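Supplementary notes (optional reading)

For those who missed the lab, this is the record we used. Protein: Transporter. Length: 668 residues.
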Amino acid sequence: MPTRQDYDAQSSKHSEQSFFRFNRVAKVPLGIDDDDSYLDISDEAAQLKPRQQHWANKMQFVLACIGYSVGLGNVWRFPYMCYKSGGGVFLVPYCIILFICSIPLLFMELSVGQYTGRGPIGALGQLCPLFKGAGLASVVVSFLMSTYYSVIIGYSIYYFFTSFKTEMPWVDCSNRWNTPDCWVPQPKGSNITAPDTSRTPSEEFFENKVLQISGGLEYPGMMRWELFACLICAWLMVYFATWKSIKSSAKVRYFTATFPFVLIIILMGRAVTLDGAAEGLRFFFRPKWSELKNANVWINAASQNFNSLGITFGSMISFASYNKYNNNILRDTVAVSAVNMITSLLVGIFAFSTLGNLALEQNTNVRDVIGDGPGMIFVVYPQAMAKMPYAQLWAVMFFFMLLCLGLNSQFAIVEVVVTSIQDGFPRWIKRHLGYHEIVVLFVCVISCLFGMPNIIQGGIYYFQLMDHYAASVTIMFLAFCQMIAIAWFYGTGRLSKNVKQMTGKAPSLYLKSCWLVLGPCLLFAIWVLSLINYHEPTYHNGRYTYPDWAYGIGWMFASFSLICIPGYALINFLRSSGDTFWERIRNTLRPNIYECKICGEHHCEHDFPEQEQFMLAQELATVYKPTTSHLLHLGQKGGYNPMQASSAEHPYHTQYKPHPETDEMSGK
């Protein structure tokens, strides 16, 4: 007869097969993911342990990254930032920062997210606890971006439904919102030229009809209720696409990340054939070298790099945290970077070809043809649609594409915030909210409320102010802190070892040199230059200057994220052990990587926390004691089998009876 130890061994061996039964016995609430320990006494293990939820396949992760990089960061923000910074001169710092900072930083973020299996707060908190605030700062920036990125989606919804009208309202100047400055281009051969103060019908439609723009930020005006309804629709779509985490949003991206490519190529092919397109392309590709000393050009180039690739916003760390442990990081980095560069060029060619055509028709130069505000795409692109054959069909398709791109970007931003909240406060979330859907609803409602000031009549001024200070000024400092924390304090040697453990190949010398020296030095130089030669933002090519108190509001937005870094460092320093100042500093700089107590590895096959394994072994080996041994006569192995336990009346099934001591303990 087998001994009790034999039953214990067999029960432990079959513990993973019987995990569903443990959930029922231990009464783990439904909806709790198995990647966190609900029964663990401390939050620390739940925060350190890698998540077990993964992408269904490799394509979902690639589409998530590409969908973010081909989202609003390129189609909306790239031409807006390039035009605002003077055209071709913008491409010089853009390319320099791309190869020295952005691509190495993208590889670093994918490596850190994939290795730790955590969001930005948890990942940086494990590698360098002193700089855990840098992860929190990136989440704050993502949250602020979510409040006004949704407004772009709302604009897209408004234009999408307006495109179904028989006569598109941005084609002519016969509408009630048009002013005497509105100018419709005349046919070739006519001697009529545009006045110096002319404006396009699309520009007047956007400012006078959609926005009903006020005279400035000091004149807030009334709520635009049409835009309010579009904003609610936008957040409803975001919520129902992300409420099941990557399981739902990944399926949506199969369409939203691929459809825009085809349309962008078609529109670019049409735009380059327009009259005056050559002048627009000349403005796009020919830099004015004297503008390189302008700090805002470098700041805008850096922020555009990080926005389009999603780095320092926590998006890529969060996406990579759902990867398999042995995923090829280098291949993903090259693919995402290449798609990002190609898309930026295609969109730039399309946008500036159209601007050249508008400048020719309006009898002005490309630099002054329209305002440099964030609504530039809603002025340039509708004008380009009007020149296409079957203009109404193309307009509907384009604004549907813009809607898809906005949703791609918003999915990534919302998932960063939600993932970080769940990583940072796992037990509180499970105790008070319980379900992932409620966490997503909470984030969406709060972001929607904070985005309301963007849809009043003076909201476009508030929009540009927040975009400049929340997503441009602070982003370089966050990137610098992130590089210092990982490359200097955690160490490129450790990170290279982690990458080699995952992929079998260590990072190249190019990546290591960019992490250690080139990247931090370039970012620090840009930051110093921005302090020495800084210009406050303006609206509409300098025609509107913000009041002084508005700049105070902007720096308040910037401080929301910047204060997280020294604030969290001070908290970790005070909580750390040590008798002297330097002992505490050393303790806060020491990595806090999760290691399995069974095998000592960070990623292993032991899917469940140690306490769950202990309780499962007790439940399987002690609660159910065999009273007969018919199985042994049949040559079957011992161990708990749920099918056998459910058929007690069968003569050849082992009969089990509860153990009174363990039943009493489980009752308590």
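If you only remember one thing from this example: The chain has 31 helices and four strands.
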